[in-house]
Structures are given as C-alpha cells and as structure tokens.
Specification:
Elements (H helix, E strand, L loop, with lengths): L1 E10 L3 E4 H7 L4 H8 L3 E4 L6 H16 L8 E5 L11 H8 L6 E5 L5 H14 L5 E9 L9 H4 L4 E11 L8 E6 L7 E2 L22 E2 L1 H22 L9 E4 L4 H10 L11 H4 L6 H11 L8 E8 L3 E8 L7
Parallel strand pairs: 4-5, 4-6, 11-12
Antiparallel strand pairs: 1-7, 2-3, 6-7, 8-13, 9-10, 12-13
Helix pairs in contact: 3-4, 7-8
The structure holds oxa(dethia)-CoA.
Length: about 325
C-alpha cells in the first residue's frame, strides 16, 4: 500500500494588515519590509476566531475535493505552534469534533514551520503500515496570538491562516508520495522560540506578562541556517531519488522570506516558474504556509494531476524537512 496526496484546501482570514499599517505601529517602513522580506501584507484572524476554526474551514475544502465522505477520514493530525489551548486538548481533536468526526485518532505535532512536512510524513507512515487509510493533515496557525506587536524585528513577518490535505491509501505506485526527509537540531533552540510558559520556566513565570510567551527570533542567524539547510536538504532528497531539478514542476518552500526562497531556488538552479512564492500576500504562516501555497497554485489551475511537487521546510526547533509529492487529486474545474 502507498500513500497518495489526494487533495488540498486552505482558509485565509478576512482582515489584512499591510506594511503601511505597520508603519503606524512600530519604527519601520514599507520599503524596509519589502526589500528584506518580500512581504506586502498578511491576514489576521478575528479575535474570536481560533486556530481550529481556520483549520476546519481548510479541512472542509480538502475533504470535499478528495471525493471522500467525512466519515471516511480515520485520522486527523494538526501541525501548529499556536494551538487553541496550551498543552491540551489538542487542536486536532477540536478540528475533528467540529467536522463531526468524534471518534478518529487525532493529535497535534510541534515542528514549527516544518510542521506540514512532518504531518505528511506521519500520515504516509500510518498508511503504508496499514494502520490508517484516509488521513486529514492540517497546518493551522493563529500566529497573531503569539506575536509581540511592539517588536519590529518579528511582528512584521507573521500572519494567520490554515491549509489542509487528504492523504489516502492507494495501490497505484504512480500516485505514491516518493520520499520524505525530516530532521532536527535542538542545539539551535534559542534561534527561534517562545521562551516562557513551559516546564522550562520557573513556576511563577506562568503568571508573568504574556510577553514571555511571544515568539522571539534571532532573525539574521536563522536566515543563514535556513538557506544552508533548505538547500542541502533538497540536494540530498533529489540525489537519493535520482532526480534533477527539472523533474520538479512545483518547488514549494516554506514561505518565510523571499530572499531565502530566491537564494535556495537559485542554488538549486530552479527556474522562476517552478518556484511557488506566496510570502508577499500572507507573510510567514509557519505550519500553514506550505499547504496554503499549494492551495494557491491549485486554485489558480496550475496544479495538474501527476505533477511532482517538492516541499521544503525549515523552522523553530530547529527542524527541517523535504518531500517529493506527486499531486494525485483531480484538477480544479
Ligand atoms: O519561519 C521560520 C524560519 N524563519 C526564517 O527563516 C526567518 C529568517 N530571517 C529573516 O527572514 C531575516 O533575518 C529578517 C527579515 C528577520 C531580518 O532581515 P535581516 O536582513 O537579517 O536584517 P537584520 O536582522 O540583520 O537587521 C538589519 C537592520 C538592523 O538595524 P542595524 O543594527 O543595522 O542598525 C535592525 O535593527 O534592520 C533593523 N530592523 C528593522 N528596520 C526597519 C529590524 N527589523 C526592522 C524593521 N524595520 N521591521
């Protein structure tokens, strides 16, 4: 049995924060943000809109496009660093229940911006082992809830949104997800973290200002490790699968910064039309960024059945991962 990437869906909240809005909030300019990151705007969830609410909307689209009934789904995995609740219950269980799937296996994983590649890898393993048949994978983030809007070095980067995909069992090898690599190195933990609120904090720090739970990033150091790791990861997975860059129709990297994407794309000799770039519209949506980007090319009618996608992600942990994924769904009509 193989695992096939059957369908994609995404949801983007209505409210938009532009670079001009940030000029009024912190000491920054549209010019700086555009030149250093490529970001023009990002979407922000409503106050009463949760990560699971966004995940459900993306999931409903992905399930409808998969041709399956909701009741066919036997597992839900959610990649998020901005869950509805701290520790428990998992956002995946809430998504499953809101979808009307109360008895399925459901859990979250924490791999930051690499989260979506990790959940696809987990779905593949469960399917190939015969334990599950139709797995809903979700990347959903309300990063605005953990962003410090007084810190200009991070607040201009992040946005909210969700993406979801259905991964199904197939006997057709042509449809099979070819390969997935995942890795991590906790010695770089301090590059990108929410420093407070966990068991590593003094007990009374849980009562400290929420500021301790906001994201902190050593942006420039992270940038360098990101370019290096994203590139080497792809070189390795292509080599191990005897493929060259031309075999890839859509290179879908994590959308953190257009300079990172450009540097990696150039190092891999990818043509511009192979590289999917959505960072301008959505900013960095961590675990949601790759499925949101896949959904963009799907909705634009640019993702065809059988075309090979190369996913490439990097994020807090540090974590990284890459995946060779043929699109096994029907083309958007
Ligand atoms: O998603 C997971 C992984 N995340 C990433 O891969 C993100 C990696 N990092 C980045 O994308 C970039 O490092 C940033 C966009 C965060 C920053 O760009 P940079 O080119 O690395 O800038 P920098 O941090 O070296 O800062 C350059 C200058 C500094 O001023 P001085 O020290 O040169 O006077 C900063 O204080 O830019 C200043 N600066 C800003 N200026 C205007 C930092 N943030 C801003 C801002 N507006 N928002």
């Amino acid at each position: 049995m193989y695992a096939a990437f059957r369908s994609i869906g995404a949801y983007v909240p209505e409210k938009v924060l532009t670079n001009a809005d940030f000029e009024k909030m912190v000491d920054t300019t549209d010019d700086w943000i555009t030149k250093r990151t490529g970001i023009k705007e990002r979407h922000i969830a409503a106050d009463n809109e949760t990560t699971s609410d966004m995940g459900v909307k993306a999931a409903e689209k992905a399930i409808a496009r998969s041709g399956l009934e909701k009741s066919d789904i036997d597992m839900v995995i959610c990649a998020t660093i901005s869950p509805d609740y701290f520790c428990m219950p998992s956002t995946a269980t809430i998504i499953a229940t809101k979808l009307g799937l109360p008895k399925v296996t459901a859990f979250d994983i924490s791999a930051a911006c690499t989260g979506f590649v990790y959940v696809v890898a987990i779905a593949k393993a469960f399917i190939e082992s015969g334990m599950k048949k139709n797995v809903l994978v979700v990347g959903a983030e309300k990063l605005s809830a953990i962003t410090d809007y007084s810190d200009r070095t991070t607040c201009i980067l992040f946005g909210d949104g969700a993406g979801a995909a259905v991964i199904t069992a197939t006997e057709d090898k042509e449809e099979a997800i070819l390969d997935i690599h995942t890795g991590s190195d906790g010695s770089y933990a301090d590059l990108l973290m929410t420093p407070n609120g966990g068991s590593g904090s003094a007990h009374d720090s849980l009562d400290q200002e929420a500021a301790g739970c906001y994201m902190k990033m050593k942006g420039n150091e992270t940038f360098k490790v990101a370019v290096r790791t994203l590139t080497s990861d792809v070189v390795e997975i292509l080599k191990e699968n005897n493929l060259d860059a031309d075999a890839i129709t859509h290179f879908v990297p994590h959308q953190a910064n257009y300079r990172i994407i450009k540097a990696v794309g150039d190092a891999l000799k990818m043509r511009d039309e192979q590289v999917v770039m959505t960072v301008e519209k959505y900013g960095n949506t961590s675990g949601a960024s790759i499925p949101m980007a896949i959904n963009d090319i799907y909705e634009a009618g640019e993702l065809k059945t059988g075309e090979l996608m190369l996913l490439d992600a990097f994020g807090g942990g540090l974590t990284w991962g890459s995946a060779l994924v043929p699109f096994a769904g029907p083309v958007k009509k």
